Amino acid sequence: MPAPDRDLLIGAAEEAGRIARRFWRKKPETWAKPGDAGPVTEADLAIDAMLKAELRAARPDYGWLSEETPDDPVRLAHDRCFIIDPIDGTRAFIEGDTSFAHALAVAERGRVIAGVVYLPEKDALYAATLDGQATLNGQVIRATNPGRTEGATVLTSAATMAPQNWKGAVPPVQRVFRASFAWRMCLVAEGRFDAALTLRPSWEWDIAAGDLIARQAGATVSDRPGAALVFNRPDPRADGVIAAGPRLWRDLRSQLADADTPLSGSGKSV
Questions:
Q1: Residue 188 vs residues 26, 95, 191, 215: alpha-carbon distances, Å
Q2: 77: helix, coil or strand?
Q3: Predicted confidence (pLDDT) at residue 11 exceeds the cutoff of 80
Q4: DSSP alpha helices (H): ranges in 157-245?
């Protein structure tokens, strides 16, 4: 059922964009989440409520995992599960920046089978299915595949490029940052940047849709140790994310220092 799920997600993402516009640059009410988990706005909550109502009505046999809904382990009993970030890049949304996104995915037995990332203020809708190609506004997109790190454009934080994260010298890449990690993965899929990288624990709702879109565009996507990402897990976090064309992925992965600490922290991945 991947194609129908994709169409369902596209319609829901477009409605999320309409709701977001009602609040964007209008000083929405904002709260700080417990545990230094970042801000949440009334727009996040309104979009989450709409998505939960509409998507679960359409697919009542699917589980539900969303950043803005308290987690219910009953989702683990479902073969298919929605994985949702109502607004990825909430800080950007609060600041009136255009780089916030809505990230929607369906996972089946650990693999994402349909994914959509929509940036309403950029008129950019990325989509993919497991049995199809990745698209941007309906046009097929492809990731780059440079052979080495030198000069590669990498979407990541300054902290990721600290010397202790690398076996030798810090790779001579061009570092760029975007607020939404889902969008970073899509920018790799689109070929506008060569890689997206985070070494922090990464919530499934931030990465599920982007994982499928990047992979269907020809990128290799893994966690920090190099394993394929698995979704709808009891602890819905990945041990970092590396997304790049296969040759650059191998080069980046080979240069990363081995992680010596387990997953920790509850904040957003960066």
A1: 31, 25, 5, 10
A2: helix
A3: yes
A4: 181-190, 204-216
Domains of the chain: 2-140 (3.30.540.10), 153-255 (3.40.190.80)
CA separation for the pair 61, 136 (Å, rounded)? 29
Per the document, the length of the chain is 270
Q: How many Cβ atoms from other residues are within 10 Å of residue 174's Cβ? A: 11
Question: Tokens for 191?
Answer: 């070929």
pLDDT value of residue 107: 98
- What is the DSSP secondary structure assignment for residue 74, as one 8-state letter? G
DSSP-assigned beta bridge partners for residue 32: 39
Q: pLDDT tens digits for 76-86?
A: 999 999 999 99
pLDDT tens digits along 247-265 = 999 999 999 998 754 433 3
- Average pLDDT, whole number, for the chain? 94
Render the burial of 28-53: b for 16+ CB within 10 Å, e for the rest.
beeeeeeeeeeebbebbbbbbebbbe
Q: Compute the average pLDDT of residues 91-116.
A: 97
Helices (H), 82-233: 90-94, 181-190, 204-216
Contact 100, 117 (CB under 8 A): no
Give the C-alpha separation, 243 to 215, whole Å. 8
Q: Which two tokens stand for residue 143?
A: 């990731």
pLDDT of residue 258: 85
Integer Cα distance of 208 and 85 in angstroms: 9
Tell me if 108 sits within 8 A of 207, measured CB to CB. no
